[in-house]
């Protein structure tokens, strides 16, 4: 509908409502906006997204961003405290088993048919690696026995939306730039040359894999299945890591993207676990940080949007509206500018310039300077995205963020490590 027609209809509606109020004022009660409470991390709970969604949907949104471990703990224990949960697929097993979330009716997801094969089949291309651990397609569909699995059904445990591959960032003023997929290695995180200047994410289902990949890359140990470590393997790994920690190798453990930016900005670290927006933010203020494409493969993650088991009625309807909004195009284009992908990229493409699409999705050199979501230049003309195209990056996943069968034991070992 064009703008003039929309304004005209709004004026007619306003006039009709005014007349009704004059005639029957005592009997007219205005319907309050639905309030939707969303619990998640700083990755997606951003103020500009909140404002745009409220404007587009006519609802009130309350965002509650926390560190990934705190978010998962609160959601699992207090499902009444949120309507929608946003984090990563490694949280699904915990939430589903605890009864904190309910299934999502796939038929109510407007653009379900546009969602690509990465989540539906586990591979973005036929030749891509599945990756160890909690590959999202293994957790997506609710089976007849109420377990989660890969066989397609009408009920899903989460909405597939934002996703990316993660690695580490390093300051090229200090560390010479490596060659993607050839010399860049997870092993750099445990290289003694950088002792005292290394940062790690403080999240046991994420940082654990960064360090496990680093230990394996340096031949300090090997895993039978890095996505499902045994107790004996965890004991061996953490004995190694505690030695590094007590020697002062790690400068700090961050819990949010802004904190990771500050670590690098303040020169506290020269290399650290990182998420894509942090790299873009640092490049935007002329701190030269490369986002590695490790030769061992990336750590993959897939965003999940989950419906609280306690959400019903108007709030549930609004939750479906919000989920559909995320797949409507503009949100996917917005998060592309900070390095994230959306599960139906062809719709987001309509809101990206050709130069933006070429750089962020196709891995081509930027045709001009590109701005991030903070309106600062984060990509300079001629730059090529680390790791290349969407397809290439997601064809090289070593392991997904995962909740392993030994999850409880890994938590215990992780906190022993943090406190050592």
Write a structural description.
The protein is of the alpha/beta class and 420 residues long. 35% of the residues lie in helices and 18% in strands. Strands 1, 2, 3, 4, 9, 10, 11, 12, 13, 14 and 17 form an eleven-stranded mixed beta sheet that branches. The protein has a two-stranded antiparallel sheet with strand order 5-8. It has a two-stranded antiparallel sheet with strand order 6-7. A hairpin with a 5-residue loop joins β6 and β7. α8 crosses α9. The chain starts with a helix and ends with a helix.
What is the topology?
Layout: H1 3-24, E1 35-40, H2 47-57, E2 60-65, H3 68-77, E3 84-88, H4 92-98, E4 101-102, E5 104-105, H5 117-121, E6 141-142, E7 148-149, E8 155-156, E9 159-171, E10 198-201, H6 207-217, H7 231-246, E11 250-254, H8 257-265, E12 271-274, H9 276-284, E13 289-291, E14 298-308, H10 313-326, H11 330-336, H12 345-348, H13 354-360, E15 370-371, E16 377-379, H14 390-393, E17 397-400, H15 407-419
Parallel strand pairs: 1-2, 1-3, 10-11, 10-12, 14-17
Antiparallel strand pairs: 3-14, 4-14, 5-8, 6-7, 9-12, 9-13, 9-14, 15-16
Helix pairs in contact: 7-15, 8-9
């Amino acid at each position: 509908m064009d703008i003039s027609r929309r304004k005209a209809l709004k004026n007619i509606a306003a006039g009709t409502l005014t007349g009704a109020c004059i005639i029957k004022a005592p009997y007219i009660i205005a319907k309050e906006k639905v309030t939707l409470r969303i619990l998640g991390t700083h990755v997606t709970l951003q103020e500009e997204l909140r404002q745009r969604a409220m404007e587009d949907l006519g609802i009130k949104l309350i965002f509650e961003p926390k560190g990934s471990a705190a978010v998962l703990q609160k959601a699992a224990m207090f499902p009444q405290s949120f309507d929608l949960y946003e984090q990563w697929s490694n949280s699904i097993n915990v939430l589903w088993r605890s009864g904190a979330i309910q299934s999502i009716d796939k038929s109510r997801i407007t653009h379900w048919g546009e969602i690509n094969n990465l989540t539906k089949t586990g591979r973005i291309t036929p030749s891509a690696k599945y990756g160890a651990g909690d590959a999202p397609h293994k957790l997506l569909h609710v089976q007849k026995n109420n377990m989660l699995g890969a066989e397609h059904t009408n009920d899903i445990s989460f909405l597939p939306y934002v996703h990316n591959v993660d690695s580490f960032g390093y300051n090229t003023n200090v560390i010479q730039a490596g060659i993607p997929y050839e010399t860049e290695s997870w092993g750099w995180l445990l290289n003694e040359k950088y002792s005292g200047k290394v940062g790690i994410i403080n999240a046991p289902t994420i940082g654990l894999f960064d360090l496990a990949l680093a230990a394996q890359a340096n031949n300090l140990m090997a895993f039978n299945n890095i996505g499902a470590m045994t107790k004996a393997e965890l004991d061996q790994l953490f004995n190694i890591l505690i030695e590094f920690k007590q020697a002062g190798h790690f400068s700090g453990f961050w819990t949010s993207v802004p904190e990771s930016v500050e670590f690098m900005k303040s020169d506290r670290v020269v290399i650290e676990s990182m998420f894509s927006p942090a790299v873009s933010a640092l490049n935007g203020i002329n701190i030269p940080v490369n986002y590695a494409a490790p030769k061992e493969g990336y750590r993959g993650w897939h965003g999940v949007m989950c419906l609280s088991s306690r959400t019903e009625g108007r709030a549930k309807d609004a939750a479906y509206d919000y989920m559909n909004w995320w797949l409507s195009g503009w949100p996917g284009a917005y998060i592309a500018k900070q390095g994230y992908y959306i599960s139906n990229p062809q719709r987001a493409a309509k809101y990206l310039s050709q130069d933006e699409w070429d750089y962020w999705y196709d891995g081509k050199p930027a045709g001009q300077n590109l701005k991030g979501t903070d309106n600062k230049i984060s990509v300079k003309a001629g730059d090529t995205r680390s790791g290349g195209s969407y397809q290439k990056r997601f064809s090289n996943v070593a392991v997904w963020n995962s909740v392993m069968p030994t999850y409880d034991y890994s938590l215990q070992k992780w906190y022993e490590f943090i406190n050592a």
